[in-house]
């Protein structure tokens, strides 16, 4: 068993939660204002969710609630759920959801995206859509998040992911500057993201779609049902 396959201890999860709370305790107040300039591809992902009427949607790593609020506006007949490991971020998300009058349609819970019990947290066992926006690049053992997300899907559900690519079409100096900046916030673009998603789609017999955005700045992927 490799180190990436070892289950995370409660102490490790607690330490990661504490780290995220520390990183975002103050940043959460300006997070959405600053991140809109470089978390590219989030809105196209939300537009492509194609949520069925009365569907259920889960966001893993919901942060300030920006994405789940936008999705709830876009799909007014659906129910939404947000999971995050940071209590600080969830506090901000809860206030934003209340301000938007969406508290009746959006439920938040604190938990680990690599290992969560949807029924215990939300009283929902399966979701029509699960999406992850710029969170896999921050989650230790992020591969487990992909597996957990797929396990939480309904039979005809789909998983939607947007995150940093490898900036393969951009100048090397840009990649170097970006990686240095992201490292300050414990963010690391996942070089093997496409490979892992393709492997998981084969394992589950699902379809797989992948797009590079902005010369590889971001990667957008969908794992969904065949046919």
Structure description:
The protein is 40% helix and 22% strand. With 227 residues, it is of the alpha/beta class. It has one domain: Vaccinia Virus protein VP39 (Rossmann fold), CATH 3.40.50.150. It has a 7-stranded mixed β-sheet, sandwiched between helices. Strand 2 (79-84), helix 5 and strand 3 form a beta-alpha-beta unit. The termini are far apart.
Relevant terms:
methyltransferase, single chain, 22% strand, Class I SAM-dependent methyltransferase, globular, 7 strands, Methyltransf_25, Rossmann fold, transferase, 227 residues, methyltransferase activity, alpha/beta, 7-stranded mixed beta sheet
What's the shape?
A: globular
Alpha carbon gap, first and last residue: 35 Å
Mean pLDDT: 86
Lateral arrangement of strands in the main beta sheet? 3-2-1-4-5-7-6
User: Structural class of the helices, strands and pairings?
Assistant: alpha/beta
């Amino acid at each position: 068993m490799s180190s990436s396959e070892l289950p995370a201890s409660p102490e490790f999860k607690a330490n990661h939660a504490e780290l995220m709370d520390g990183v975002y305790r103050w940043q959460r107040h300006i997070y959405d204002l600053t991140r809109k300039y470089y978390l590219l591809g989030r809105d196209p992902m939300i537009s492509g969710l194609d949520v069925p009427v009365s569907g259920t949607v889960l966001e893993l790593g919901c942060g300030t609630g920006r994405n789940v609020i936008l999705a709830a506006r876009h799909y007014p007949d659906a129910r939404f759920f947000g999971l995050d490991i940071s209590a600080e971020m969830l506090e901000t998300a809860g206030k934003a959801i209340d301000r938007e009058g969406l508290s009746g349609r959006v439920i938040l819970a604190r938990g680990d995206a690599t290992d969560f019990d949807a029924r215990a947290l939300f009283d929902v066992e399966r979701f029509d859509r699960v999406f992850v926006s710029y969170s896999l690049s921050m989650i230790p053992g992020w591969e487990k998040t992909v597996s957990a997300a797929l396990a939480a899907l309904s039979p005809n559900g789909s998983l939607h992911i947007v995150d940093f690519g490898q900036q393969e079409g951009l100048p090397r100096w840009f990649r170097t500057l970006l990686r240095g900046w992201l490292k300050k916030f414990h963010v690391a673009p996942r070089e093997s993201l496409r490979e892992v998603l393709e492997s998981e789609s084969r394992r589950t017999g699902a379809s797989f779609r992948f797009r590079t955005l902005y010369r590889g700045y971001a990667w957008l992927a969908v794992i969904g049902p065949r046919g």
